[in-house]
């Protein structure tokens, strides 16, 4: 039950990422996405005040709306240093989720179940890295060095060399390397 609660926090993190994007735009959302996010959050409610999160007009206001939660520290790292890119914050939230999930598997599951969950998590991180590398190349026109700095650490099927190769390749070569 405790592990399942951690696993379902993925949906809550997705809602927080929507609130981050909204706050970075100055809180100028149309309200439709907010309502959907708030409704979906009720499924996995951990006491976050999502209405207050979506009312935030800056990351500092969002950090205040998240006061007392595990997300306050993550958002605070970005507001304290004046960084305001939703992509970086989203990546930090995703990394937080995977670490939390791995720790939860070790804490709440048997050794064999924990191994199985960690294999699943590692595969998901591999897919996450591939998708993000593609997005960084196609939509953000990031350099190889910038992309490599955003790769989530993982020790699974895709080795670091292949990830570096994906980060350095031309977008047309990407599918063949994958």
Give the key terms.
178 residues, mainly alpha, 0% strand, flat
Topology record:
Elements: H1 2-24, H2 32-41, H3 50-55, H4 59-65, H5 70-80, H6 86-108, H7 111-138, H8 144-150, H9 160-168, H10 174-177
Plain-language structure description:
The protein has 178 residues and is mostly helical. It has helices spanning 2-24, 32-41, 50-55, 59-65, 70-80, 86-108, 111-138, 144-150, 160-168, 174-177. Helix 5 (70-80) runs antiparallel to helix 6. The model has no long low-confidence stretch (mean pLDDT 85).
Give a summary of the structure in a few sentences:
Helices cover 72% and strands 0% of the residues. By secondary structure, it is mainly α. The termini are far apart.
SSE succession? HHHHHHHHHH
- Structural class call reads mainly alpha
Q: How much is the radius of gyration in Å?
A: 17 Å
Beta-strand percentage range? under 5%
Low-confidence stretches: none
Largest sheet: none
Report the strand count.
Answer: 0
């Amino acid at each position: 039950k405790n592990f399942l609660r951690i696993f379902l926090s993925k949906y809550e993190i997705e809602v927080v990422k929507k609130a981050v994007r909204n706050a970075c735009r100055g809180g100028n959302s149309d309200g439709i996405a907010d309502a959907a996010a708030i409704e979906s959050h009720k499924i996995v409610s951990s006491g976050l005040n999502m209405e207050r999160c979506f009312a935030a007009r800056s990351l500092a206001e969002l950090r205040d709306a998240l006061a007392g939660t595990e997300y306050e520290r993550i958002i605070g790292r970005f507001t304290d240093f004046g960084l305001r890119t939703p992509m970086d914050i989203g990546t930090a939230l995703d990394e937080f989720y995977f670490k939390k999930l791995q720790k939860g598997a070790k804490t709440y599951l048997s050794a064999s179940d924990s191994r199985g969950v960690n294999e699943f998590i590692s595969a998901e991180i591999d897919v996450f890295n591939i998708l993000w590398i593609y997005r960084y190349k196609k939509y953000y026109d990031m350099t190889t060095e910038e992309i490599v700095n955003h790769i989530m650490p993982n020790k699974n099927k895709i080795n670091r060399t292949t990830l570096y190769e994906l980060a350095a390749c031309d977008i047309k070569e990407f599918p063949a390397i994958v």
